[in-house]
Amino acid sequence: MTATANEVKVWDPLVRVFHWTLVTAFFTAYLTEDGQGLLGIHTFAGYTVLGLVLVRLAWGLVGTRHARFADFVRGPGTVLGYLREVLTLHPRRYLGHNPAGGLMIVLLLASLLATAVFGMAVYAAEEQAGPLAGWLGGVDGFWKEAFEGLHEFFANLTLLMVAVHVAGVLVESLLHGENLVRAMITGRKRA
Predict the structure, then answer these.
(1) Which of 5, 11, 50, 51 is nearest to 191 (CA)?
(2) What is the mean pLDDT of residues 162-169?
(3) What DSSP character marks residue 2?
(4) Which end of the chain is more exposed for a tag (fewer CB within 10 A), N or C?
C-alpha cells in the first residue's frame, strides 16, 4: 500500500505485525492460564510473547525511524508536559508515538518481559521443563509460589497497562481527529 498525498507512512510492516501478533499472543496466554489441558497453548503463547518482545527491543535500536526508541522515548518532564497538554485538550500532535505513548511502550515491554521470565520460572519449577529447568527445576514450594505470584502480578499489570494504552489511543484519536487503530493496520497517518 502506498501513501496518498494526504498521508505518510509511519509504521513499518514489522511494527504492525509485531503489534497485532503480540495482542493475540498475550490474550491467548492470559485466557489459557487456568484452563485444564491448556498448558501447551499457554506456554506456546508465552514463548511467542517473549520472542516478540526480544525482536521489538532489537528493532527499537536498529529499525525504521518511528520504530526506534530514540524517536519516542522522552524524559519525565516531556511526558508530564505532554500529559498537561492532553488535559487542556490541545496536545501537540506527533507523527510517531507521543511522549506518553512512548513511555507506555517501554513499560509494556518491561512488564511483558517480566511476565515471560517469571512464567518460564514457574514452568521450570512446577513442570521441570523449559530453558530454566536446569536452574529452577528442584526449587521448594516457597519459590514456586513466589514465581507464580510474580508471574500473575506482571500479567495483571500488563493487562491494566493495555487498558490504559487503549484509552490513550482513543483519547489521542479523538483529540487529533485521526483513527490510530487504522494507522496501526495500514501503517499510514495523516501528513
Answers:
(1) 5
(2) 97
(3) -
(4) N
